[in-house]
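A quick aside before the break. I want you to see a complete sequence-to-structure record at least once, exactly as it would be stored in a machine-readable document. Don't worry about memorizing anything.
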Amino acid sequence: MALTIYERVGGFASVRRVVSAFYDRALESTIIAHHFEQIEMPKLIDHQTRFISFLMGGPASYTDEHIEHVHARLGITLEEFDEMVELLTETLEDFEFGSDDRLGRRCQSRTGAAQA
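That is the input. The structure line, written in tokens, reads:
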């Protein structure tokens, strides 16, 4: 049986390193940093790690409570979303996700569409 992306990258701890690096970049961004002023970053990082782990084929531990209490209040605009996609793409490149990875391809195609 083929390994999921989640298993190939090393599971929860590895995904958490990627998510933490992404939010380090986000907090340095003048475009989107203000969205995180009222958010507890350790909680956001934990919830986002669970969400991305689930998308990558990991355990289904991301709940509606996470969406309601963490992500729903951010109110990200399309421009800010594009900035986040760019930062995520850079983060994935730093962690050497291959071009065959589904998550990496989605980010690259979204960034390409935004730049066109």
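Two observations worth writing down. The CA atoms of residues 6 and 14 lie 9 Å apart. The chain has one domain: 10-115. We'll return to this after the break.
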